[in-house]
Amino acid sequence: MIWEGEYxxxxxxxxxxxxxxxxxxSGPEEPSAALAGTYDLASVDSQPLPYQLKRPDGTAYMEIxxxxxxxxxxxxxxxxxxxxxxxxxxxxxRSDTIEGAYTVAGDDVIVTAPEALPMRFTRMDDGLSIxxxxxxxxxxxxx
Length: 143
Known about the structure:
By secondary structure, this protein is of the alpha+beta class. It has one helix spanning 2-23; strands spanning 37-44, 47-48, 51-54, 60-71, 76-85, 92-105, 108-113, 116-124, 127-132, 135-141.
């Protein structure tokens, strides 16, 4: 199905952009217990969730419902994203999981996973941010 191929290509592109951002750092350090925790996607381009991704004609093709990033103290990472695809005849809700490892380089957290390109997050006071495909996503640490 053409739509499925387009969707998968866009998903890989987003993951690739995140991965490339993470891979650009130098001098990786060991993961730390201070960074370990669960982070929730709070906004995309400063807009709250759900966030609609639109075609050039302005029609929505996908909506980001939620994403949860979990970093453990040993360097393991899990990213679970839930989104709604607008397909015929009914929209479909789907969750995808990426598991891998992370390293730290200064304020950058680089995530690598077998099924995704490297992703680079930047540490902030209240969480992590990443820019992919021109969109900035803010993940806020759970208390």
